[in-house]
Design brief:
By secondary structure, the protein is of the alpha+beta class. Helix content is about 40%, strand content about 30%. It has helices at about 5-25, 25-30, 50-60, 130-145, 150-160, and strands spanning about 40, 45-50, 70, 75-80, 85-95, 105-115, 120-125. Strands 1, 2, 3, 4, 5, 6 and 7 form a 7-stranded mixed β-sheet that branches. Helix 4 (about 130-145) packs across helix 5. It is elongated.
């Protein structure tokens, strides 16, 4: 795959994730990958194949706090055409908690594509403490504005309010 083809594959991936985040159809996320793809998630472990990726991503993104994340735009990316890889920073943006403030945490993602432009591997690298701190801060603001649900209230209590 050359540089232009890799950029097109990455652009298609970003557009699909944006659409999926907008519709909430997280089951479709697994379909972006090849049948035998690997998703390496440093906290949850490795998932091999679409049918291992699907239940994990649906569960993660439809329960708190993933259910409060509304956008995942890349902040930057680097193309490595000889290896069919894209290395990028993905912004995980929470919904407006009620006061217009922006709450987000980022991860470094390494995407590897096949020759047809389909992801065969994704690895997400991040600091779980930074995510917990961001979720705690967001939850406090949402609670103040009456927009924090029961799951959020329970997690906020567990995270030390």
């Amino acid at each position: 795959m050359d540089q232009n083809e890799l950029q097109k594959a990455f652009d298609a991936y970003v557009a699909a994730v944006d659409e999926i985040a907008g519709t909430g159809d997280w089951a479709r996320f697994a379909d972006l990958f090849t049948e035998d793809a690997t998703y390496c998630e440093h906290v949850y472990g490795d998932f091999t194949g679409r049918e291992e990726i699907r239940p994990w991503i649906v569960q993660t993104m439809t329960t708190y706090p993933g259910s409060e994340m509304v956008a995942f735009p890349p902040a930057w990316h680097v193309l490595d055409a000889p290896t069919n890889r894209v290395i990028c920073e993905i912004r995980n943006i929470m919904r407006d908690p009620g006061d217009g403030s922006v709450h987000e945490a980022s991860n470094i993602t390494i995407l590897t594509f096949d020759e047809d432009g389909n992801p065969v591997r994704e690895e997400d690298i991040y600091n779980p403490q930074k995510f917990a701190d961001m979720v705690r801060a967001w939850s406090r603001v949402a609670k103040q504005h009456g927009t924090l649900g029961e799951d959020g209230l329970a997690m906020l209590e567990a995270l030390g309010g």
